[in-house]
Amino acid sequence: MRKIILVPDSFKGSLTAAEVCDILGEVFSRHFPEAELVRVPLADGGEGSTAAFLSAVGGERRVVRVQGPFGEEVRAPYAILPGKHTAVIEMAACAGLPLAQAAGRLDPGRATTYGVGQMILDALQIGCREILLCLGGSATNDGGAGCAAALGVRFLDSSGRSFVPVGDTLQNIAHIDLLGRAPVLAGATLKVLCDIKNPLCGPRGAAAVFAPQKGASPDEVLRLDAGLAHLAAVAEADLGVSVINLPGAGAAGGMGAGAVAFLGATLCPGIDLLLDLVGFDGLLKDASLVLTGEGCIDGQTAQGKVIAGVARRARVAGVPVIAFGGVIGEGAWALYDMGVTAMVAADRAALPFEQAAPRAAADLRRAAEDACRLMTLNAR
Description:
Layout: E1 3-6, H1 17-31, E2 36-39, H2 49-57, E3 60-67, E4 73-80, E5 86-90, H3 92-95, H4 97-102, H5 114-125, E6 130-134, H6 145-150, E7 154-156, E8 162-163, E9 175-177, E10 189-193, H7 206-210, H8 218-239, H9 251-263, E11 266-268, H10 270-277, H11 280-284, E12 289-297, H12 306-317, E13 321-328, E14 342-345, H13 353-356, H14 360-379
C-alpha cells in the first residue's frame, strides 16, 4: 500500500469532513503503517463547502451581519480565495436548516433567502468579481426570490406594489422587474454549485422532495410546488428565461432556478470544481486506495455528490474506492457502476438519527476497522 487518499464529505449533523478524515486516517494508518495518507476533506456545494475551499486552497474568512431565514440578524461567514477575486458563499450560512432548527421554527413557506443576496452584495462591493454560490441544507422554498430582492430585483403584485416573496407568497407575483438590479452585478460571474439534478416542480421537484424535511405538511407541499410553478411562468413571460425543466433548478428550495433566472448564473457540479482545485487527478497517479464517504449513501449520491465525483475520476485512474456511509439506502448500488469498489455502513443498529448522531464517530471507527481487517485477510 503506497498512498491512501482520504477524500470524504461531512456526515451531516454528526461529523465534519475533517473529522471523518481523522477517524479513517487513524484506523488505516494503524493497519497500513507504510502507506502515505493524504487528507482532502471536501464538500459538493452544500454545507461545509466554505471550509472545504479554505482547506483546499487557502484564503480568508469574512463574517457579515445579514438576515437569517426568518428576518433575524445572523453572523454569516464566507470565504475569499487567494487573489481576492473569488468569493465562496454558502447559502446555509444564513438560510440554512440548522438555523431554523436552532430557532425551533421549521417553516419553509415563510423562510427567506434574502440574507444570501446580502452576502453576495457584500462580496461584490469589496471587489470580488466571481461568486461561487454553494447550495444545500436550506430551510427555504422561495425560489431564490429573497436573494434576488436583496440584489435589487423587484417583484410586483397585481396592484403594482413591490414585495419580497417567500414560499407562501410566490403566487402573488404578477411581474418581475430587473431594472433596479445592483450595478455591481454587471460583469460579475456567478456560478452556482449544486449536487442534485432535481427540476423545479413536480414529483421530483424542490417542494415534493425536500420541503417535508424542512417541516412542510402534504398540503403545504402542494401549495409550495404551485408557487414555484407560478414563479417560473412569470419569469418566462417577463424575462424570457425558462427554468421549469432545468436540471438542478430545484436545488435549495428552487434557489437554482432563481439564480439562473434573476441573476444570470450558471449551474455546475461543485464536486468537480473542488476536485480540480485540489489537483485530485494528480494525487491519483500513484495512489493505491481512495477512501470517501458521506452521512447517507443512496440514489441521490449518484446524482453528483462527493462520492460520485470521486469515484468517476478514480475509475479512470484505475484506483479502487471504498465509500463509508452512516447508512446505505435505496439506489446506492448505482455507485458500483460509477467506480465505487465497496460500500461500508457505519450504523449497524439502524437507529433514528437523533440516537445515531452522538455515536457516529465510534460507529465509523468500527466500520473502518472492519474494512481494514477484510483487506488484511485478502492480502494473506
